[in-house]
Amino acid sequence: MKRILLSTLPGKLPPALALLLLVGTILVGLGLVVVTGFGYLPALGADAPSLESFRRLFADPRLWPSLLATLTAGLVATVASFLTALALAAAFDQAGENGQGWAHRFAVAVLALPHVALALGLAFLIMPSGWIMRTIAQASGLFPIPADWPLVTDRGGVALALGLFLKETPFLFIAYLTALAQIKPASQLLMARSLGYRNHIAWVKLVLPRLYPLIRFPILAVLAYSLSVVDMALILGPSTPATLPVLILRWANDPDLAQRFVAAAAAILQLLLVSGAILLWLLGEVVVKRLCSAWLSDGRRAWPEWIAKSGSLLLRGIGIVVVAAVFLSLLSLLLWSAAMTWRYPDILPQAISLAAWQRAGMTIWQPLGASLLLAIATSITATVLALACIEHEKHVRRYLVQRAERWLFLPLLVPEVSFLVGIHVLLVLIGLNGGWLAVGWLHLLFVFPYVFLTLKAPWRAFDLRFEHMALALGQSPWRVLWRVKLPMMRGSLAWAAAIGGSVSLSLYLPTVLGGEGRIVTLASEAVALSAGGDRRVVGVYGTLQTTTAALFFLAALLALRHRRWTAK
Amino acid sequence: MTRRLSLRGVELSKDGRRILGPVDCDIDPGRPVVLMGPSGSGKSTLLNWLIGVLPPAFTARGQILLDGVEIGQLPIQARRLGILFQDDLLFPHLSVAENLAFGLPAGLSAAERQSRIAAGLAEAELPGLGGRDPGSLSGGERARIALLRTLLSEPRALLLDEPFAKLDVALRSRFRAFVFDRAAARNLPVLLVSHDPADAAAARGPVISLGGPG
């Protein structure tokens, strides 16, 4: 007899659609980047493959300094956030539940914070006339006028690395705590302590080797992201020359169509840069493993006292700096948005007014509306699609699910600027460039993986017997989904949708490449304004972007908390 | 009307290896059949297959006959086999009355639905609990509501997946008696899977022993 499946829902379509949407688009984008980079694009009149665009790329005097700044900022940010997040996770793991909830909530909040808003606030904080320098000036009497130092957009990319570090440490911290919860190290640590090991060294020798394979992917994603970031680099990164991803964007947007070929060649270089960095990291893993294998079992049970002490002090210091920098950045956005006069070494504005808000009020509705429309439309689409994909899983063998799922991580590893430049070429070819459909499609590429990853765990944890019971009671599959599963899962759905909305809200590159300046969102407008220098309006945009993201999560929390029954 | 649930040559396989069967049996109302076996013997999977939700890792062969009619090809909601699991699985977002109403067939008038729910609650000796949150009920109350919900869906047979295992001992035999009693009153064939010999003794029907995997 044939196997009977409960496949009344049109099952196979959504996963196929999702993979096509995601993987298909990215592969097409990469393919177009490659052919364009090698000078073949008949639509633009180039039909003879050549290395001309590479020659022009390498002849550009900006290339090498740009590559160097890109690499330094990206690698420094990755290594620093990796080590810090690891140390913090270890410290909180050993401290137990005490304080972990608070740190976890802070990290989730930073994760939801749009990159652009954080970068703008950080620029306000560290620039020569920012809060830090004002405090130094007040305390020391030095710097009667703002110092002439390039503290933001410095050549070495330090400000950019700092911005990336602030954003990525919380992300990795959450990933590590999640992985730690899976391996449950407490009993092993207890055993090690009974053998005379001190806590810290036991953690590094016993827990870390088991933890690392589980946390490898988030680190590689952070590495790829740090090397390819555009929005934060436009605000915090060096400007003469800019980092490679920023240069690619400029070439791709150049009115001179010939520059599109250089953009594509540079996008290939970017791809190689990221692949090379990932390979380097993996190689580093092997080396560290070799070097440390003997050390793991050499029987040494404690660090020298001074290392343990200064390490823990340093960690505390870094933790405080991260938290303070995030809060002060947001606060300076808010203060600037409401400052009437704020003369240089004063710590606080002399007068507060809503003039900037009123001025922005005339022009802000359009970008706010566009941001909200894109965020709501793409997060709902992504949630429905993700739901349909995960719903279909129960009819499929586990290994097939895992195999398909691996592809979902693609957009997190491939540098977005590389495939987006190719997709932009595609959009031009099919005449979708500069339209809502194009921007929505590109947003969905980034919103969907996050929504899927958020929804996956709670959806799989759902007790399928509830469904079986409801079906056995004689209800149709659609009714069971509608009346039983969706209501029971509404908290997770709301949370995933909020994540999706906040991702869309923070997207810069897909907006400018898809919208070609005709569709303007809070993110793209804030980046554009940051070059202009009206701090009050920039403050308004940054504050508004942050508030909107916060509102998404507030709405989800309300849905999560909402219980029909009060305790009796 | 007499009802009879029959299994003919039923086998379960996982990855091409047979893990259960072949099972042949006829189940008549008032004489519950008990499938005894250790955990991992595939007995819960067998019930899943009977109601129509076999996990994709498994394959099954054989026939399911209800009053001599093959129902193995019907979609799950058309089979009308009621089931109870180890957990009561009351829907937490619905009230007790709404849980019961969820089980009722469609097409009844509102008044008819109300009166069936009230009669059900009275039968479970839980009158007046309709407006309550299932989470506020005791374990015994929840178990009885779960049974009632399944019975109100007018099943043609009752499948029991160790529904007594999680109840405490004093409650267990009372609830077991209640289930067999209500099923007999409705003339339902009952198939019980269990690893508790006390279940088999209380059922006073045929017992089929399953080995482990192999």
Give a description of the structure.
The complex is a heterodimer of chains A (568) and B (214). By secondary structure, chain A is an all-alpha fold. Chain A is built from 25 helices and two strands. Chain A has helices spanning 13-37, 52-59, 63-95, 100-112, 115-126, 131-140, 158-183, 186-194, 199-228, 231-236, 244-252, 258-296, 305-337, 355-363, 365-392, 398-406, 410-413, 416-430, 436-461, 464-472, 477-488, 490-506, 509-515, 522-532, 535-561, and strands at residues 339-341, 351-352. A two-stranded antiparallel ribbon of chain A has the order 1-2. Chain A starts with 12 loop residues before the first helix and ends in a 7-residue tail after the last helix. Mean pLDDT of chain A is 87; it is low at 1-9. Chain B has two domains: 1-80 and 156-214, 3-Layer(aba) Sandwich (Rossmann fold); 91-154, no CATH class. Helix content of chain B is 34%, strand content 25%. Chain B is built from seven helices and nine strands; from the N terminus they run E-E-E-H-E-E-H-E-H-H-H-E-H-E-H-E. In chain B, the strands form two sheets. Chain B has a five-stranded parallel sheet with strand order 6-7-8-3-9, sandwiched between helices. A four-stranded antiparallel sheet of chain B has the order 2-1-4-5, covered by helices on one side. In chain B, helix 6 (169-185) links the parallel strand 7 and strand 8. In chain B, helix 3 runs parallel beside helix 5 (139-152) and helix 4 (110-123) crosses helix 5 (139-152). The A-B interface holds A 1, 3-6, 8, 394-398, 463-477, 483-484, 487-488, 564-565, 567-568 and B 48, 51-57, 59-63, 72-73, 75-77, 79-83, 85, 87, 89, 91-93, 102-103, 105, 132-133, 135-136, 149-150, 153-155.
